[in-house]
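Hi P.,

Sorry for the delay on this. The queue was packed all week, but I finally got your sequence through. Input first:
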Amino acid sequence: MYGCSVWASVLKTKAGTKKLRSFQRLISIAVTNSFKTASTESLLILSNLIPIDIRVLEIAVLRLLGDKNRPFSKRVAQILSKRFHPTDLLKSAVQPFSVHSSPVPPWDMRSNILRLSQDSFVGIGSFGKNTVRFYATFFRTKDRMGYCYGKTSYSGVVEDTNRADYSGWSEYKQVTHSAILRIFSQIKETRCSGHIEIFSDSKESFSWTNPRSKLSALEIEILTLFYPIKHRCTLFLCPKTSKVAGLELVKGLCALPTDSQVIRDTAPTLLTIKKDIHSSVLNLWNSEWLLSSTGTTTKRFFPTVTDALTLESRLMPSFLSQILTGHSLLNGHQFRLKFGSTSRCACGYADETVDHFLFHCTRFTSRRENFVTVSLNQTGVWPPPLSCIPAMPNLLSPTSHFITSTKRLARRTRTQ
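Then the structure:
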């Protein structure tokens, strides 16, 4: 995968895509112990391997968004815009996802952070006359998150409050940093010359104090404002159970309804972008799977690619892969490929297909009793839908036990 953002142009043609998947197919056959006649799409589903051409697209998109100051192939960028669908994501990511070196020496970045005990009590007033306190709290709901902070003077009077709401997809850490940056910006604008105390109930809001060599752009802004006043600034980290009067007051302000309908958006972080791109990759893979004309039996077990995530990440037994792919030693498949003389089952009632073998063949009625009992308890029906078998671990186990007990698929295989 080295340098795939350079040679990703081979994906422009179907021949290039097929050539890339050809060697990935060999790996999938080894992992799943499947017959060589099984379709590539089914093998990738069972082995939980994202098609390599789609994986190349994912890496190339991250490379494209990673640093806009470095050159990127225009030809590859055109392919990404056609085959990859998060176009709104590409437009919103106007900032490069690069990290920044701190202007503050790492050994001088730690500030005076005091952690209050769980039962500590801090009043809203009664502190030094030249001291200003800020109380910051954060809220998070299903569709939005935000912060609210207040400023109090020596007399305990709330002089200023500020609240901001963000869309639900925003990063919580970014929201906390936005609140702290707003506080330090206000300190600079008002030219506060006394001692400053900042109380927060979120540890993420002070994460920028760790002596790290690489910081986000937002953390750099905070450090730039904080460093000149660090000698007269104290940060307090408050547990949720502590009783800080100022925080309780600010939390009450957060609970009040607001007339403001403005919802802010933070710049997407690298973690958010990676999650969105990976989600889009799975959607692209799932679309191909749904439109695929091959892997009919596997599609009945796994209607979507995410359904196959329930499979354990280890080598698959051969008998199980035969059932999940439909390419097996059963007469129905052997006759279709002209390896057998008839497709009829030895019981004489129907063709020996996967459904007939699992649910109806009278030769294995006694061995199927536990399988039937568990299916009725888990799904309430017999026979169960094929998609329920791998989705329910309690049902997959008796299914595997039934298949092995019949020894129908344990014969010595011929080269397929």
